Amino acid sequence: MANVKLIMGALLMSAPTMAAQVPWFESNSPLTQAHRNLLNNELPAMFNSLVEVWQLEKNRAIAPHLNDIFLQSLDIDCGKSLDNRSFPEWINNLTVRSTEIQSPGRDAYRAVVEIESNRDIEDISVTRWVSKNLSTDNSFEHALPTNDLGTQKYIKRYNLNSRVESGLYRIDVTATDQSSWSSWLLIGEPKAKMTVRWDAKAQWKVEKSALLNRHCPLPKLDVALYDYVDGEYNQVWGESHDADYPTSLDGIDVEPGRYVLAVSMSHQRWQGPIIVEQSQIISKTYDVSVEE
């Protein structure tokens, strides 16, 4: 918290100079309120102020500055206090995931929303302010029940041409009985503190570029093998690690053949009750011989 106060204090002390150059820095503007609320550890109020700032078209030029404020707020409790509203009783969990998939010669990007609900869900949508659909290349599916209590999982996938941009988004969920719920979602410029890259045939490196946020879950490493059958990828083996990350594929029991090996590193935070996840996936073909 001391670092936050030093950084934000320095920004506020520079306000007279900034005000002479930029008209938006006013004594009681939403941006000034965002600074003040962060200094006072009033995170829901800070979040609301940032939403207001993003809604002002003239403030697009200060997107990097807004991103810095937002990332500083995550140092307090990893985003748990950004929104003090709870889900309606018919939504149990909601996860928003942005993924970058790095394959030989091709990168792909995806945004996914997963909801666990005890009601039938008609649709899930994510739009970028103002009213911009993430992608027309999307799908909505009802997955298998998550438990014996009637909780269902629903997944909305968006295939994208580039990374999810930082900024203000809106999530809307509609049940078949026309119950609805919506929320603003702030996405910051991704600055992954741990990444993975290939090192050899079935070996990879885990690289750390910055200190981890002690309030957030440890980054999770997933390793999986997929078989390609009838136009679909089916996972045949996998394991997860949140510490002591392996760097090679050893001693697995699968049939000989050609597979896709995928290694992912995921960082997780919160926005109130919403889980927000950023994932990097590297993949390549992997041949298992009889000798192995």
TrEMBL record:
It comes from the Bacteria. InterPro entries: DUF2861. Residues 1-19 form the signal peptide. The keyword Signal applies. Keywords: Signal. This is DUF2861 domain-containing protein.
